[in-house]
Amino acid sequence: MTERLAEISARIDGTRQLGAIVNAMRGIAAARALQARNQLAAVETYAATIAAAIGRTLALIPPARPDTAPRAARPALILFCAEQGFAGAFSERVLDAAGADLATSELFLIGTRGAAVASERGVEPGWKTAMPWHAPGIPKLADGVAEALYAHIATGGIDRLDAVFARWQASHGVHIERRRLFPLDLSGFSRPGGVLAPLINLKPDALLAELTAAYMHAQLCDAALHAFAAENEARMEAMAAARGQIERQLADLQARQRQVRQEEITAEIIELAAGETASEG
After folding, report:
1. How far is CA 176 from CA 79, 81, 132, 189, 256, in A?
2. Which domains does the chain have, with CATH numbers?
3. Smaller CB count within 10 Å for the chain: N or C?
4. Among 144, 159, 154, which residue's Cα sits nearest to residue 106?
5. What pTM does this model have?
């Protein structure tokens, strides 16, 4: 009986330690998600400023004739998956959203855990890298992704590029978004009318190329920050569910501990009573 009580007490201690680890992981995920959401506001403002500059630059360039020549290049996908585990089916949802395009597209995959999940499905990306552990590392990640993309675009390897990433919204949870990054749809940029032309030191074509590169970088940062925040939100949900399970398990163990202790006390009382009866006889 004493051995059973000691075993239950040890399990209670282990469960409490596991609960402390889960709480710590949930707190870290919450801090990272908040940091990413705070940086998103700055990135969105920056992207809007670049978009306005592109619109004003387009007003200086005559409309280009559409290119109707056939192309044999492949489409490409950037998949923003999970870097770490304990985030539920985060990476699986991103891969599911890409669907059949996984087999026909050049793949750029971000996230160590996502790369493992893709490998289990028989999907091998042409280029992959890790997601930073902290939001301040996102701009450097965007630099590396942009460099790899431009290398493929320059050689004619790809002619269409989409980003597939998770996005978290309050009261709506995590959903998967797909965004076209290349070619840039210039018709979506508003051209201001009735304002003075800006003073520029570059040729309009060169300025437009620089601005579109900056806009691409901003879009990569935006998608990566959304994915980073969504992964940590998913991890918070997973840790909350784990915490609930731990609390239920702990309650069951404590109830069992009380029962075993009561049985032990009862057994001792019976032994004492039996011993007293035997001595009186």
Report:
1. 11, 11, 20, 25, 44
2. 1-60+70-185+202-281 (3.40.1380.10)
3. C
4. 159
5. 0.83
